[in-house]
Every structure is written in C-alpha cells, then in structure tokens.
Amino acid sequence: MASSQTIRVNLAERSYDILIGSGTLDVFPQFMADRNSSTHVVIITDSNVDDLYADALGDSLTEQGYEVQMMVVDAGEESKSADAAIDLWETMLAEGADRGSVVAAVGGGVVGDLAGFVAATFARGLAFVQVPTTLLAQVDSSVGGKVGINLSEAKNMVGAFWQPMGVLVDVNVLGTLPAKEFAAGMAEVVKYGVIMDLDFFEYLEQNVDGINARDPEVMQKVVERCCQLKAEVVEADEREESGRRAILNYGHTFAHAFEAATEYGQLLHGEAVSMGMVCESRLAERIGLIDAAATERQVKLLEALSLPITPPELDPEEVYRLMWHDKKVADGKINFVLPTKIGETTLTSDVKSRDVLAVLEG
Ligand SMILES: NC(=O)c1ccc[n+]([C@@H]2O[C@H](COP(=O)([O-])OP(=O)(O)OC[C@H]3O[C@@H](n4cnc5c(N)ncnc54)[C@H](O)[C@@H]3O)[C@@H](O)[C@H]2O)c1
Ligand SMILES: O=C(O)C(=O)C[C@@H](O)[C@H](O)[C@H](O)COP(=O)(O)O
Ligand SMILES: [Zn+2]
C-alpha cells in the first residue's frame, strides 16, 4: 500500500476512521480484524462491482479464515428499494447471518445506503464497514451514517442513522469508473466548496484538468478534503438536528424531486445534484441572497466537469409537489439551503412558491 491518510470521525462511542490511500484494498482483512472479532462477514455489493473488486475482497477474507456470505444486488438506483432490502434480510437469515455477523458494503452509494440500512435493521442492528468504490461514495455517502431506501415519491424516505465501524477508501478504484459516474461524484465535491470552503472551490477551479484526467495526487487531495469537511459537519450535528448538517443538502431539495419525478431511472444522483445546486443558487438570487456572478461561477465549474446543469422537461407544479416530501419540511414549510456567497450558506423557509416555480420554469 502506498501512502495513506486517516481521518477520524469523532462521535463518542460511535467514532471511526476513514482510511484513504492508493492500494488500501490490500489491507481489507486487517482493517476488518482491527475493528471486530467476528469471523462471519456478509459482503453486499452490486452486479458491476462484484467481479471488479468484491469477489477478490471476499477471497482475501476467506484466506484469513473468515466465513464470507456474498450478496449481489442489481446495479443502479432501483436497488435502493424495500424489495431489495427484504431479499437481503431473507437471504441473510437463510444463510446463517446472526447478531455477530458484520456487513461490508462494497460499492457505490446505492450499495452503501442499502447495505447500511440492512445492517441497521437485521437482528436490530449489525456492525458494518463501508468500502466505497465510486467517487460519490468516497467523498460523501460512505461517511456520516445516513442509510436508507427510496419510496416511489420520496428519496431516502425510510432509513436510519447508523454509523459504520470504519471506511476503507482506495482511490485506485476510480480508474474503472465510467466517465458519467465520475462526473456525478464531482457534483457532491463542488457542493462542499460552495457550502463551506471557498479555498477548496478555487482549488477545484484551478485543477479541472487534473480532476478530469483523474490525476491520483489531485484525487487523493480531493477525497481527503471532502471527507475532512463531512467529518466536521457530522461531528457537529450527527442526526441533522441543529441545522448544521442540513448544509450537506445544498441542491438536494430540487435534486430529490427531479429524481422522484423521473422515477429514479433517468438521472444519476450527482447529475440531479448539479442541476439542483444551480436551481437553488438561482432561487437565492431571486430572493436577494446572492449575486448572479456566484451562480455563474458554479455553472462554469460544473460544466467544465462535464456535469448537466439544466433539468429535463418536467411539470414544474409536479416537481414542486414532490418537494413537499423533503425531510427538511417542518411546520408546514420547506426549508431550503441557499448559498449567500461561495463558501457560505443559510437555511431559510422564507421562500415563496412563485419563486420556486419561476426557477423551475427556467
Ligand atoms: N448516505 C449518504 O450520505 C449519501 C450521500 C450522497 C449520495 N447518496 C446516495 O448514493 C447513491 C448514488 O451513489 P453512486 O453515485 O455511487 O451510484 P451507484 O452506487 O449506483 O454507483 C454508480 C455505478 O457505478 C458502478 N461502480 C461502482 N464502483 C465502480 C468502479 N470502481 N468501477 C466501475 N463501476 C463502478 C456501479 O455498479 C453503478 O453502476 C444515491 O442513491 C444517493 O442518494 C447517499
Ligand atoms: O450526509 C448528509 O447529511 C447529506 O445530506 C449528504 C447528501 O449528499 C445525500 O444525498 C443524503 O443522502 C441526502 O440526505 P436526505 O436526508 O436529504 O435524504
Ligand atoms: Zn447527495
């Protein structure tokens, strides 16, 4: 294993490390042994990641004397469903998983959210680790403990806060990621810059070529910075109670409605977030919170990273209706995370429906 860095997520007895480096998959058995004494590991992965990485990780555990149960779901957002969770629970039971088993999520955000949800609920809760294999999962979904599944009208509507025992990030796996998936991960990366780190946003602007070429040194820095920022936010507000964690939802009020309106089949989550951030920045402009130049700066960076910024043709009223399923709705109002400048956001419910509809109408 080449150089690596460890970022600690401090959450009292739920604290854990994120190990980030090149070639870290080689230490998977040791990583597991250091965190739990169980010898029964349930690996949950998807139909693409199975052959690419999960099988080999399973073999490396078997060689060390572990009993491994391998479970493969169909690749794609459709697997973040109640049906998929039921299949996993039933199979785990049939094949001997018990309270002492450990779940390892090996894959992107879909696998991480689904496997984490199954871990949180099977036998009232199993220990689990995250081995994120997409950029999006490495910079965002594997950290912070939000796990869950979708309902047809509401993204991530059924779930839990269930922290992993550890997160093992190998940036080498980004090499096999399709271009569209890599770009989708960059949307969440840009999000961190807009919500809380102007210097990081500028670093991204200055390193677009290195990012698009997936330069290992640049990508190691990008993943590390995002994980540091997410760890800080999660440590401050683990269960999204004080409002601090809500900043990670920038772009998501619109994004989740776009995903539900297109039945989770047309847009990647990161693509929807890219469109959602532009919409929410335009909404902030309309109510006088930010200047147009700051939105254009986001548009320019997102486009340079090959991300879409214009939502598909959808009925604005229907998208607005779906926004009411957002988990930030409280006291009959939608709370929006809106940028006030690059590097700063505010949480506000003081938004008129006509402004939201005007943004959706374009
Ligand atoms: N829990 C959280 O905090 C959080 C944060 C952000 C996003 N999410 C969720 O994450 C999901 C999106 O995750 P995603 O973008 O990783 O999508 P994904 O899990 O569907 O993975 C994208 C695609 O890449 C493939 N893949 C994965 N790793 C690969 C690799 N190394 N090489 C080649 N192909 C690979 C997968 O099989 C899949 O086809 C959404 O459901 C979103 O809601 C959750
Ligand atoms: O970790 C968080 O908190 C986030 O909001 C990160 C988001 O990128 C992610 O998409 C999350 O799953 C959205 O959460 P939700 O509570 O709006 O479903
Ligand atoms: Zn997201």
Written account of the structure:
It comes from Aeoliella mucimassa. Residues 71-183 form the 3-dehydroquinate synthase N-terminal domain. Its cofactor is Co(2+); Zn(2+); NAD(+). Its main location: cytoplasm. Belongs to the sugar phosphate cyclases superfamily. Dehydroquinate synthase family. With 362 residues, the protein is α/β, with parallel strands linked by helices. It folds into 2 domains: 4-176, Rossmann fold, CATH 3.40.50; 179-209 and 238-361, Dehydroquinate synthase-like, alpha domain (Up-down Bundle). Helix content is 46%, strand content 20%. The chain is built from 14 helices and 13 strands. It has helices at residues 28-33, 49-63, 82-94, 109-121, 135-141, 179-196, 198-206, 208-212, 216-236, 252-261, 269-286, 292-304, 316-323, 353-361, and strands at 4-9, 16-21, 40-46, 67-73, 102-107, 127-132, 146-151, 154-161, 166-170, 329-330, 333-334, 336-341, 344-348. A 7-stranded mixed sheet has the order 1-2-9-6-5-3-4, with helices on both faces. A two-stranded antiparallel sheet has the order 7-8. Strand 12 (336-341) and strand 13 (344-348) form a beta hairpin. Helix 5 (135-141) packs parallel to helix 6 and helix 13 (316-323) packs across helix 14. The radius of gyration is 20 Å and the shape is globular. The N and C termini lie far apart (49 Å). The model has no long low-confidence stretch (mean pLDDT 97). The protein binds nicotinamide-adenine-dinucleotide, the ligand O=C(O)C(=O)C[C@@H](O)[C@H](O)[C@H](O)COP(=O)(O)O and zinc ion. Nicotinamide-adenine-dinucleotide binds next to helix 2, helix 4, helix 5, helix 6 and helix 11.
